[in-house]
Amino acid sequence: MTVSVTLAERALILAPVGRDSQIALMILNEAGYEGLVTPNLGSLCTELEPGAGLLLIAAEALRGPEMEALFLYLEQQPAWSDLPIVLLTHHGGQEQGPSSHLSSLLGNVTFLERPFHPATLISLVSAALRGRRRQYEARDRLIDLSESERRLQSTLETLEQQVEERTAQLRHNEEALRQSQKMEAVGQLTGGIAHDFNNMLTGIIGSLELLRRRLARGRTEDLDSLIDLGVTSANRAAGLTHRLLAFSRRQSLDSKAVQMNTLVLSMGELLQRSLNESIQLDMRLNEKLWVAEADPNQLESALLNLVINARDAMPEGGKLVVETSNQVLHSEFTEAYSILEPGDYVMLSVTDNGSGMPQSVINRAFDPFFTTKPIGQGTGLGLSMIYGFSKQSRGHVSIDSEIDEGTTVNLYLPRFRGEELEQPARDILQTPHAMDGETVLIVEDDPAVRVLVSAVLSELGYAFVEAGDADGAVPILNSAQRIDLLISDVGLPGMNGRQLAEIGRQYRPGLKVLFITGYAEHAAVRGGFLDSGMQMITKPFTFDLLTAKVREMIKN
Q1: How far is the C-alpha of 483 from the C-alpha of 45, rounded, in Å?
Q2: Disulfide-capable partner of 165 in 80, 154, 286, 519 (CB 3.0 to 4.6 Å)?
Q3: For helices 66-75 and 41-48, what crossing angle results, to 10°?
């Protein structure tokens, strides 16, 4: 409910002893502020419901059973609200009486010693109301952001899963609305998502519409180009949601032991092709490098993004250095970062001698959709994705740069402390066709995904059984039906896919499970989510990947 300006900025006064309440009201009215004197705590709590800018309370009035109602109101304030309170004390009152032990319960408290000077009271009230106005502005921005979210959801009917992931990102940013300096970043984030998604949806919807028109007219020539256009736009949309999840530290990570030097060398040809001929690539790899713990796919993506950023900073050519080293981070360094622990880290550095960045750009470099590139030449998600990846991996990322001197980005990943296991080579080219009688149980709440997965497995000769949720799947698992593999979405309504797998293994010990997911918060780190005989692929996936995983899991 929207509160009127008069009610939103009025001062509620409670000073039942003496003339303090009338004097305070007179001073406020003379300064142009609205005020209302309340006789007791119960009346004050009643007046809070239609709205208030601040409370002016005498310390001796804070007693009796009505105090619980005031504390309950303050505790149940929405996230944007922090109601300011001016507590009137006697001389030395901040250290004596009830005010000292009640201040933590009241929250946003300022003490005013009696007798008070009118100018002091007006100064405190003015400051409190300025802060209150910013809170109401934050609430209005939050309402606007929620309206924008609902409009975008109605537009993305065919991309429901991506919208859920975007909502998770927006909720992350809603928390930042408690601080007024985050308002600009949130507005930038919303605009960037809407702009990019609308462009991608135009490519998807437009290509499908043209396909339907041509097929209706019997024109079957040159359909591949329209299909390629739609698939390209859909893949770009998938890439955007993955970057958003990386920024918000909610992507599904498959962390394992990584030989970083080997990974960097394997990408050498790709990195060289990404650079201009005028840029010299120099790799300086520590021969005694520790083993890192990270998701190798996300690490490859991070390195490629850093190299491309460095290339764009050197339009006239230059030198790009990719370096690895061992680093021991002490508490003097890590204490500045809330989740970074002291210890051993493997560092990957990318250095260019390009244009460099001013401090104002460095301060915003990790913000989502912030970019200094011309329109259409950068999404502004590369560095924010790397930032989210580093934090979710229990690491760190930093930028050092000077104008016209170049830039260095340092990515720190924790040293692997477990027993490194040799990864067996897998035959990814093995035939995906089913053997006689092989049956898959498919549990997916989205009808479109369920139909597509069933259709592609049926074409390869697999028998299949379908269920829309865990409640429908449990009786099948508890029957005599042959099941060689359970394919389940993680985010099912009611009982989730991981819980379903646990029940399935009670009925069928050793049941193999392939999870498919677009976003699952508890599956963010796969090592703590998957047991033996379980694997995971993320939506959107190619059917080649799906069928290869099915064949691999059933065979092994």
Answers
A1: 62
A2: 519
A3: 30
- Conformational region of residue 32, where left means phi above 0, alpha means psi within -120 to 50, and beta covers everything else: left
Report residue 366 as tokens: 């990790």
Q: Is residue 132 a contact partner of residue 106, using CB atoms and an 8 Å limit?
A: no
Q: Is the peptide bond prior to 540 cis by the omega test (within 30 degrees of 0)?
A: yes
DSSP class per residue in 362-401: HHHTTSTT---SPTTS--S-HHHHHHHHHHHTT-EEEEEE
Among residues 516, 526, 546, the alpha carbon closest in space to that of 446 is found at 516
Q: How far apart are CA 163 and CA 151, in angstroms?
A: 11
The torsion of the CA quartet 516, 518, 521, 526, rounded to 10 degrees, works out to: 40
**Cα–Cα distance for residue pair 508/518, rounded to 1 Å:** 27
Residue entry with tokens 């009230």: 125
Encoded tokens for 326: 């061992």
- For residue 299, with 0-12 CB atoms within 10 Å meaning exposed, 13-18 middle and 19 or more buried, which class applies? buried
Q: Name the pairing type of β-strands 406-414 and 396-402.
A: antiparallel
What is this structure's pTM? Answer: 0.41
Q: Strand 534-538 and strand 256-258: pairing?
A: unpaired
Of the candidates 482, 510, 486, 481, the one whose C-alpha atom is nearest the C-alpha of residue 498 is 486
Tell me the backbone φ, ψ of residue 539, rounded to 5 degrees: -80, 150
Instruction: Report the distance separating Cα 217 and Cα 240, nearest Å.
Output: 35
Q: Within 13 A of 213's CA, how many CA atoms are on the CB side? A: 7
pLDDT, one tens digit per residue, over 69-114 is 888 888 888 888 889 999 998 765 444 444 556 677 788 888 888 8
